[in-house]
Amino acid sequence: MEHFDRHIKIEYKGDADLVTIADRKSEALIRERIRALWPTHDVLGEEEGLRDTGSEYRWYVDPLDGTTNFAHGFPVFCVSIALQHREQVIAGLCFDPTRDELFAAEHDGGAFLNDQPIHVSKIDALKESLVGTGFPSHKRHKNPNIHFYHQITLRTHGVRRAGSAALDLCYVACGRLDGFWEFNLNPWDTAAGVLIAQEAGGRVTNFSGGQFELNSRETLASNGFLHEALLREFQEIFAGRGVEPLPDPREYAGKR
Ligand code: IPD
Ligand code: CA
Ligand code: CA
Q1: Which residue, judged by its Cα, is nearest atom 12 of ligand 1?
Q2: Which CATH architecture has domain 126-239?
Q3: How far away, in angstroms, is 61 Cα from ligand 3 center?
Q4: Average pLDDT of each block of 10 consecutive residues along the chain (256 residues)?
Q5: Which fold has domain 10-117?
Q6: Residue 189: nearest ligand to its CA?
Q7: How far apart are CA 166 and CA 79, in angstroms?
Q8: How far is the CA of 46 from the centre of ligand 2 (A)?
Q9: Going by DSSP bridges, is the β-strand pair 218-222/18-19 parallel, antiparallel, or unpaired?
Q10: N or C, where is the chain less crowded by C-beta within 10 Å?
Q11: Reported pTM
């Protein structure tokens, strides 16, 4: 937070892929603390990459999820940390310092927001739901999500694009959102949030309804009640069926 809202210097990892000193310092601090407590554990962090010594334990660290927001003073970002033992993510947390909200979950132990149990929403009709999505900051031109954004917007109360995938998943967990999807997320974006959403009673799969994998590049989360409906929409959109065409701006301009 020392670096927030102070016209922080932005560096570019790609066209629109930003990194700041806050990302780097946060990861360095988290790695130092993990090393001090569990020197044999492995760590995969967004900024420093993978430390792999063959440990059964691996930490996933997104030291700042929502860097673009952070760099512009838009107060939606968090720190996301998860711990995996063998194939199972056993603990996860996302901390939003602007709202002082700590989302946390342990495998089979439920999910919590500032120590209070949280649960997904009970909305069971897509047309009454609020959902979230995100757009990646690299290979943006290869991403078809604008079509999904358009179609799902027409079938729900709306689609939010808040800019922190980890928080989006936590918002599904506590019922602020009823669903969330994104293409091409990385394991550090999802490891904690997915566990938190699942432990709050939510369902997380790939876009075909198959098991969610940390490396699968497809994340579809919901309160469970909406999952089949969202999967059906995805199938339809991928197949180009029942798709409302995006209005042509030139035609629109002619009638302004
Ligand atoms: C990004 C955020 C954003 C999502 C992007 C991610 P970063 O993470 O989670 O919401 O849409 O795909 O890369 O780069 O701010 O850690
Ligand atoms: Ca991220
Ligand atoms: Ca990040």
Answers
A1: 136
A2: 3-Layer(aba) Sandwich (3.40)
A3: 8
A4: 83 78 96 98 96 96 96 96 98 98 98 98 98 88 91 97 98 99 97 98 98 95 98 96 89 92
A5: Fructose-1,6-Bisphosphatase; Chain A, domain 1 (3.30.540)
A6: 2
A7: 8
A8: 8
A9: unpaired
A10: C
A11: 0.96
